[in-house]
């Protein structure tokens, strides 16, 4: 029996969102006194931000396939996606402002509250206030670009993806070979005092990260056209999982290998998002809901955690910062205990934010935009 190809609710991918958000949570637990990457082969646990970018391209393509025909469709899409992320962003900013001392210039506040802070790719702007929100600033750029990339003809999309990736890689090569041509700021010990450095530019700047989003869009096109039996889907999922685990174990070896092949800037950033084709394969495999591993991961509690994962992602660093700065829990020792406390508080807050902010805001904007018209299904990722 062939697997279903275009279900609008992909519980396995929803559940996987939680694992990606949890990896970022572990990455940010250093202020609590423990560096989890030291116990996980020095893996950069923030790598799953790239997973979110790929997943976003995939699920938006799934939910909007054959739905962006008119100018009104495209404008409604951008407005809807903005209000998918902005109300929660604003709420978390208010929580941050009320609990953590913050100062900054008007420009930083303006960029932050309009979700443009990663578009000026300096640490001082991208990491302003709730630092994790830099990624949804990048997502907003993706949303604006999506209606114009999502061409009817797949060959045009493939050509665009190839040219864009070639352009990004070529620019990395030029910066690697002729850094004197560019006036990037030097990095200082306090990154928040740095200007636009070479690293911050290639990490935050949305046009650079667009390759991951387009990769997710193309992954959907493959998924749409390739049917797998239940057994084949299970094999594909097992193989994809093994590839991810193999990379986790050997990431530092892989990066060291590429230093002798790729331009320096490309290799410097491989640790953050160079593995995104691996995430494309992983998402493609687990999108087939009837595969054994997809069914296993679609447990109702994991799906629930996936549903609140955007709120979890947005609030967890605020929780960790409060424990570290305001309660100074590091003075008491027992770092694992405080990690558990941070996780529990973050999950509880996520549940409240998801039900009290995320869902009502999205339902409101959909009613305003579509009224009695058919409402496009909500995509799985912010």
From TrEMBL:
Cellular component aspect of the GO annotation: membrane
Molecular function in Gene Ontology: acyltransferase activity, transferring groups other than amino-acyl groups
InterPro entries assigned: Acyl_transf_3_dom (IPR002656), Acyltransferase_3 (IPR050879)
Residue ranges of every copy of the Acyltransferase domain listed in the record: 12-354
Superkingdom of origin: Bacteria
One family name in Pfam for this protein: Acyl_transf_3
Keywords for the protein's UniProt record, in alphabetical order: Acyltransferase, Membrane, Transferase, Transmembrane, Transmembrane helix
Protein's recorded name: Acyltransferase
Source organism of this protein record: Ancylobacter pratisalsi
Higher taxonomy: Bacteria, Pseudomonadati, Pseudomonadota, Alphaproteobacteria, Hyphomicrobiales
């Amino acid at each position: 029996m062939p697997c279903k190809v275009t279900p609008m609710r992909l519980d396995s991918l929803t559940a996987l969102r939680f694992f990606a958000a949890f990896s970022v949570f572990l990455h940010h637990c250093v202020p609590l006194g423990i560096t989890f990457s030291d116990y996980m082969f020095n893996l950069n646990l923030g790598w799953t931000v790239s997973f979110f970018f790929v997943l976003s391209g995939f699920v938006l393509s799934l939910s909007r396939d054959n739905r962006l025909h008119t100018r009104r469709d495209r404008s409604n899409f951008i407005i809807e996606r903005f209000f998918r992320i902005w109300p929660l962003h604003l709420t978390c900013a208010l929580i941050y402002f009320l609990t953590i001392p913050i100062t900054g210039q008007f420009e930083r506040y303006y960029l932050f509250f309009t979700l443009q802070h990663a578009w000026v790719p300096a640490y001082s702007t991208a990491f302003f206030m709730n630092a994790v929100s830099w990624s949804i600033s990048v997502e907003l750029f993706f949303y604006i670009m999506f209606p114009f990339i999502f061409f009817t003809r797949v060959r045009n999309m493939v050509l665009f993806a190839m040219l864009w990736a070639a352009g990004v890689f070529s620019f990395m090569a030029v910066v690697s070979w002729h850094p004197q041509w560019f006036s990037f700021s030097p990095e200082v010990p306090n990154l928040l005092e740095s200007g636009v450095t070479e690293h911050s530019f290639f990490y935050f700047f949305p046009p650079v990260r667009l390759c991951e989003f387009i990769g997710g869009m193309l992954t959907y096109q493959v998924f749409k056209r390739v049917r797998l039996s239940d057994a084949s889907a299970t094999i594909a999922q097992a193989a994809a999982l093994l590839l991810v685990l193999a990379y986790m174990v050997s990431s530092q070896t892989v990066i060291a290998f590429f230093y002798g092949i790729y331009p320096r800037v490309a290799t410097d950033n491989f640790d953050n998002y160079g593995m995104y084709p691996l995430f494309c394969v992983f998402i493609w495999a687990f999108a087939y809901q009837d595969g054994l591993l997809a069914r296993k991961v679609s447990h109702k509690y994991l799906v629930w955690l996936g549903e609140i994962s955007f709120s979890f992602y947005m609030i967890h660093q605020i929780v960790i910062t409060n424990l570290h700065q305001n309660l100074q829990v590091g003075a008491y020792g027992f770092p694992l205990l405080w990690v558990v406390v941070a996780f529990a508080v973050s999950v509880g807050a996520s549940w409240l934010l998801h039900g009290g902010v995320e869902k009502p805001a999205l339902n409101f904007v959909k009613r305003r935009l579509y009224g009695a018209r058919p409402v496009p299904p909500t995509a799985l990722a912010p």
